Amino acid sequence: MDLFDVLLAVYPEFGSPDVPQASESAFVPYLRPETRHLNLNLNRNLNPKGKNMNKRVIELLRRIQAAGVMGQELEHDFGYRHMINERQRRGKLRRNFEILQSLLPPKTK
After folding, report:
1. Domain positions in the chain
2. What is the pTM for the complete model shown?
3. Which residues make Cβ contacts (< 8 Å) with residue 53, sequence separation at least 6?
4. Which has more confidence, 70 or 51?
5. What is the pLDDT of residue 19?
6. What is the DSSP secondary structure assignment for residue 41, as one 8-state letter?
7. 3-class DSSP state of 70
């Protein structure tokens, strides 16, 4: 007696032929939450302002570039401040080593 026969003996409903088989797929197409509502009105919203699509893309790229330039300025400020702090740290470390070296006897051959 195999395992399936044991299961049928304990749970006879597993072997009943009137159990409906699922014919539908469990998979559904994935839509991002922010785009679900956009798919309903996609055809109406392709060109809402009557502008040429090329002009709209160029305008979008200009806005992205302007935002990127502002971000680069902030990054440059942070990078500059980091560079100055690092130079000060190295200078302090170098001075401490010079003081420590001055306390040691001079080198001999």
Report:
1. 51-100
2. 0.31
3. 47
4. 51
5. 54
6. T
7. helix
